[in-house]
Here is the input.
Amino acid sequence: MSDNSNAIESVLTETRKFPPPAEFTKHAMISSEQQYEEMWNRAKDDPAGFWGDIAQNELDWFQMYDSVMEGDMPETKWFTGGKINASYNCLDRHLLTWRKNKAAIIWEGEPGDTRTLTYQQLHHEVCKFASVLDKLGIEAGDRVTLYMPMVPELAIAMLACARVGATHSIIFGGFSADAIRDRNNDAQSKLVITADGGWRRGKEIPLKATVDDALADGKSPSVEKVVVVRRTGGDVSMEDGRDLWWHDLMEDAVADRECTHLDSEHPLFILYTSGSTGKPKGVLHTTAGYLLGTMMTSRWVFDFKDEDTYWCTADIGWITGHSYIVYGPLANGVTTMMYEGAPNWPDEGRFWDIVEKHKVNTFYTAPTAIRAFIKWGDNWPQQHDLSSLRLLGTVGEPINPEAWMWYHKTIGAEKCPIVDTWWQTETGGIMLSPLPGVTATKPGSCTKPLPGVVPAIVSEQGEPLEANQGGLLVMTQPWPHMLRTLYGDHDRFIETYFSKFDGKYYFAGDGARRDEDGYYWVMGRVDDVINVSGHRLSTMEVESALVSHESVAEAAVVGFPHDLKGEGICCFVIPKGEIATGDALEAAQKELIAHVRQQIGALATPDQIRFTAALPKTRSGKIMRRLLRDIAAGRESAGDTTTLEDYSVLASLRESDEG
Ligand code: 7RM
Here is the structure.
């Protein structure tokens, strides 16, 4: 188990409980325990009836579906026979209502420039870019890679892809050229959309140059064209016949592109995520189920009001941004904020400045950000008027109760409910979360399953466990917004998520316990995935990057508890030659850190490189990761652990343990 002992200890002894504020409950969409239980029980006993009613009432269909759900998990298909379009449901249908001139996106760039796009204006841009996609020969089913900063053009490109039925594959701007190349090739993308650069802490992130590198020397042979948004105005080289400026293409585009009528199960997007092997997995989501799931979960959890300004601080390059900046909020006709830059630029008060300036009502962020705010001091939030805030959320990793309490007091003024939302790239939308007007919260617990979610805590053998016994978190019933496959590798999809319990359950990869009140406490990953600042990373991915360096013979990578990041990255490396000392040691460490950044991206920057002459292994040759985790965390291990001899002693000591 990836081990965050401090956090686990504090959540085991946590007994505080915070009932939803009466004032919040009074206006909440779901406002009683009984209402929640009725919904939850109906969804469990009659999922087709429950989701069917919602799909009929809440989505706009070109053609009604024949059946709500078909087939057992993992092969469940939803709303088969239906024709629908996500772009229509996020845009066109709102133009027939008063929301036509409501702000859809309020965007704030890092340098302080802002843009607001109403639903009408966003629709106009999306229609134009959809016709550009037509012109470029993009057809329904084609894959399009997006490697973009947090600018409105990113949302426009996504919705334009959805409009014509192209499957978008967004790559977070922190990934390297090699990572883009691998994803282009895996998805066989025909088109890449990027920008000259994006702003981050006053510096330009050179996106186009990175794309050039990913495409150079025929490294991404499927890619025919590159569309470039001008954002920073920095110098870029444009390759004749391949590279096109967004603004040139948009100049002659006509905003008359209607939505393609797509099957409910038409692939909406692929999003690559780290698994327990080195090769990232292309999680595939399809149109109707995903849209319904993100629309309803965001409405229930964020209790959207029409006058809300809602801000999710994630990057759209992650699933949180897909589901809770773009698709969920826009399907609901809500005003969604988008911010381009860093939370500490130009100073550590930037987020609170944005909250005050735009009168943000709902604020959704990650525990890693909250820990950074705590470190930066209460002065920053206290200098701003945060009284517009009504609801707070967190996502991405377990939140330590201390951070929860700080968020509650310092940001929420003890009047805002906190929704701690547990979910994954694979689940598409929020699975476990308080309902802000209903659920009494406990710091560190993501509380209860949403309607339609039927989880269990089971042993390694799949037996259901009693309250307060730690075990594995599984889902026992399918839900509309679950992943359908791993792109191009259905066997791996079955193997990863369904083989552990003979196809009976969806295995999330997390360890958790349920307490005596039925509340869930998620402890963290039980596989070789680590969670660095809320970003998923496979230790094997980092190991592969390390051993691809000419000086490395072998490497083992583990996570360790990190005050700010949640988990840090610790690399044990056996060099091919002698272990360097002094200045040469430092240079060798720097070299490997740079190499990992180049192979994967800045988000995988190792915190520690520890050279060693040997790694502790079992007799069968398996690296004893638990031991390495102890060492990385500085936990008491049996004796001194700095030399080869000690490693081998430890190895034999722990062998029985690790099997
Ligand atoms: C949304 C997202 C998924 C992994 C998941 C967990 C961890 C996410 C919480 C959490 C405890 C939470 N997707 N995780 N949310 N752990 N409490 N509220 O983060 O695919 O990138 O990561 O993140 O381990 O399996 S993700």
Residues 273, 318-320, 395-398, 420-425, 446, 508-510, 522, 524-525, 531, 534, 536 surround 5'-O-(acetylsulfamoyl)adenosine (CB under 6 Å). The longest helix spans residues 582-599. Confidence is low (pLDDT under 50) at residues 1-6, 638-645, 652-659. DSSP finds 21 helices and 30 strands in the chain.
